[in-house]
Amino acid sequence: MGNTKKIQEMLMNSIFDVFEKMFFVFLEPCDEEMKYDMSASIEFAGSFKGNIRAYLSTGIANSMVENMLGLEAAEITDKTREDCAKESLNMIAGSFVHKLDAGTVFDLSIPTYKKESGRFGPESPGNINLLFDSDGLYLGISMKLEENKK
What we know:
The chain is α+β, with helices and mostly antiparallel strands and 150 residues long. Helices cover 37% and strands 33% of the residues. The longest helix has 23 residues, at 78-100.
């Protein structure tokens, strides 16, 4: 499939680009397990296929909504958090697959969302897991990737 370190770097660059440019949220990689309050997922298929799942704390989702939509904290709803989470994943996946193979058209699924709580950590066999902190607000990203043998 290629160099896992290079693929991880491409995914990190896509995440940083989206969060800095669209949400004005500056992330720092971290290694500590995090608690999440919601998740979103997207699948993609082209020369490679896989999925990317985001695990978000309420705090980071609120910050994304405030910065992207200009809403005050009292105006934020579950629906605006859901929309922002799904749109961020759509942009991350689009950026990542372009970096992965710019010469191929990839099909992206419609992102899904779940309001669920849990813990997300750096270890998950077969996946690339990335954890981020932004002033005590947490984001976790998990990606499964494989060559698409049609």
